[in-house]
Amino acid sequence: MAGNFFSSDDVPRIVVTGVGIVSPIGIGKDAFWNSLSSGVCGIRPTVSVNGAPLGAEVSGFDPLEHIYQKKFIRLMPREVQLGVASASMAMRDAGIERGSIDPYRIGVEFGASHISTTADDLLDAARGLKTVVDPAFFSTQFGTENMDQIGPLWLIKQLPNMPACHVAMEHDARGPNNTITSSESSALLALAEAVRIIERGAADVMIVGASSSHFNPVEWTRVTAYESLSHECEPDRACRPFDLNRSGTVMGEGAGSFVIESYEHAVARGATIYGEILGVGAGCDGSGDENRKQGTGLVRAIEHALRRSDLTPKHLGHINAHGKGTVLDDMTESKAYHRVLGSVAETIPVTALKSYFGHFDAGAGAVELVGSILALRHRLIPHTLNYRTADPECRLKIVRGEPRRMTSDIALSVNRTRMGQSAAAVIRAI
User: What is the CA radius of gyration of the chain?
Assistant: First the structure.
């Protein structure tokens, strides 16, 4: 049990009662956990982007099987479909049917990334052009003569708040609704806001999640322009977080969602409880090269999460690391752990789940958080794939070779953006 913070009669305990997952290693919590606990990697040669190297794509996903409001599917890009599907799984897992709870007491907090257009959206307008030889003529003609050939809902499909909107319509959630667009830290920041909403009595149930995909050709081009991608050709060597010979990250896609509610509300309706959110913290590197190199934002996020939980580093059973797999990001993350956790940083087991399904901004943080929650439920820490040689610049106790049984029921899950926006969550099994 956490200390004084959660013993206060004025602040409710917040618990997780449902999870939903669409990932490169499985659709649904059972398939996902089976792959995670068995060391099944979702990284393979890509099929959606011509000429692209390795990636981690979701296979076998049919939105018709998971989305209730089927008339809206045609208005949902891939990222939105994944997010809505994961949210529906989480609500079903929580045992909440539409109309069983006052809709004004159900809210949505969702993380999202950039949602790109596709060539098909602009195809009719492009067909009407007489020539594309002169770029200036092309742009002028496109803007003045061909706009009426573009579907009126073209822009709406790309708005980052669309996952939250469609999730709300899917479940008639009329409570607080917000979207967090902070790249990899979005999912945990959405969780933090959802916790605060319940704590202040504005909702009884919150649907929390995040989704994203890098396999749209436009999105792939945009992201690869600034990401440090792995140059490995073999899937089992592509993403190697914290390994001495890591060479970069791997693009992926996916979505994760959670149902959270107050402990009293969950018990009153007889819900199954996965775990308790003890504390969520946030921070940012701010300005200065030294702050970025030392991961100042992540240090502050972990400090705040531990303080909210009324815990110290020695209470942590394991860390679900950001573990992006790039030389600089992993080194910065490791430095942050040593700064904030002190001497115990080298003794806490660390797992890095991007080795299974790659990096995909907001959605990756949500999928990793699902991994943390299921790991606590099964009392088993998944091992980091492809980790062979320790990096003396990181000095972390990486779980390797096979899963490891937990000795503590408290986990720390973290995420950090390349700009230093960071978030951390402390979760305990129940």
Answer: 21
Count Cβ atoms within 10 A of the Cβ of residue 207 and give its class: 0-12 exposed, 13-18 middle, 19 or more buried. buried
Centroid of chain to Cα 62: 21
Token readout for 357 is 């399904």
- Within 215-340, strands assigned E span 253-262, 275-283, 318-320
Each residue's pLDDT tens digit, 91-132: 999 999 999 999 999 999 999 988 876 666 666 666 655 555
309-329 burial code (b ≥16 CB/10 A, e <16):
bbbebebbbbbbbbbbbbbeb
| Structure tokens that stand for 252 in this block | 């992926």
Tokens at 274, concatenated: 């996965």
CATH architecture assignment, domain 4-117+155-429:
3-Layer(aba) Sandwich (3.40)
Neighbouring residues of 201: CB distance < 8 A, sequence distance ≥ 6:
none
What does the pLDDT look like over 208-253, one tens digit per residue?
Answer: 999 999 887 777 777 777 778 888 888 888 999 999 999 999 999 9
Q: What are phi and psi of 206, to 5 degrees?
A: -125, 135
Give me the count of residues in the chain.
Answer: 430
Separation in Å, CA 105 to CA 20, 44, 249: 21, 42, 40
Separation between Cα atoms, residue 163 and residue 47, nearest integer Å:
25
Domain boundaries, the chain: 4-117+155-429, 119-149
Q: What are the residue ranges of helices labelled H in 95-210?
A: 119-127, 135-145, 162-171, 186-199
Tell me the C-alpha distance between 351 and 376, whole Å. Answer: 13
- Running DSSP on this structure, what letter comes out for residue 158? G
51, β-bridge pairs: none
Closest CA to 55 of 290, 223, 178: 223
Going 326 to 345 to 371 to 176, the CA torsion angle's sign is: negative
